[in-house]
Design a protein that fits this description.
A hairpin with a 2-residue loop joins strand 1 and strand 2. The protein has 3 helices and 7 strands, in the order E-E-E-E-H-E-E-E-H-H. By secondary structure, it is an alpha+beta fold. The protein has a single domain, classed as Nucleoside Triphosphate Pyrophosphohydrolase (Alpha-Beta Complex), CATH 3.90.79.10.
Length: about 150
C-alpha cells in the first residue's frame, strides 16, 4: 500500500492544517492505533473542523477512530508541529497538532478501517513504539503529567 505522506519537498506549495487528539489512558495504559497504510503506531487525532473547539475535535476524533465515547479530557499536553509532502494533493502540509490527556473507564474499541489493530500498552512501550519524534514528545509530556500526580 502506498504511503499517504512523504518528506517535505522544498519549493512546492504548502497548506496549513490543525489537528487535535489525545493520549488516552485506561487502567494506566495508553491506547495506540496501528495505521496500516504507513505501518506505524499512532495516537487518536484528526482535523479540527471550522468553528470546532480543540477539545470537541479531540473527543470527536477519538469517537470516530476508536468507537469510544465515554472519554474525559484532563488538560492540554501542548502542541507539536511538523511538515510533510502529501502526494494525493501534490502539496506540502504544515500541520500543528494539539494533544490532550484523556481518560476512559472502558468500552469496546472499534478502530476505523484505516487501522488494522490497536493495543493498550504501558507508557514506556508506547514511547518505544512511536515512530516519530513528535509522538514521543507528546508521550513524554503525558509521562511528566501522570508522574506529577503520583
Amino acid at each position: 500500500m502506498a504511503a499517504r505522506s512523504e518528506p517535505y519537498r522544498e519549493g512546492l506549495p504548502i497548506v496549513a492544517e490543525i489537528a487535535s487528539g489525545a493520549v488516552l489512558l485506561r487502567d494506566g495504559r495508553i491506547l495506540l492505533l496501528h495505521e496500516l497504510a504507513e505501518d506505524r503506531w499512532c495516537l487518536p487525532k484528526g482535523h479540527v473542523d471550522p468553528g470546532e473547539s480543540l477539545e470537541a475535535a479531540a473527543l470527536r476524533e477519538i469517537r470516530e477512530e476508536t468507537g469510544l465515547s465515554d472519554v474525559t479530557l484532563d488538560g492540554e499536553l501542548g502542541e507539536v508541529a511538523y511538515r510533510f509532502y502529501e502526494p494525493r494533493r501534490r502539496t506540502n502540509v504544515h500541520k500543528t497538532s494539539v494533544f490532550f490527556l484523556g481518560n476512559t473507564p472502558g468500552g469496546e474499541v472499534r478502530p476505523e478501517p484505516i487501522f488494522d489493530r490497536f493495543e493498550w500498552v504501558p507508557l514506556e512501550r508506547a514511547i518505544a513504539l512511536a515512530r516519530y519524534d513528535t509522538d514521543r514528545t507528546v508521550l513524554e509530556r503525558a509521562r511528566r503529567r501522570v508522574g506529577a500526580r503520583a
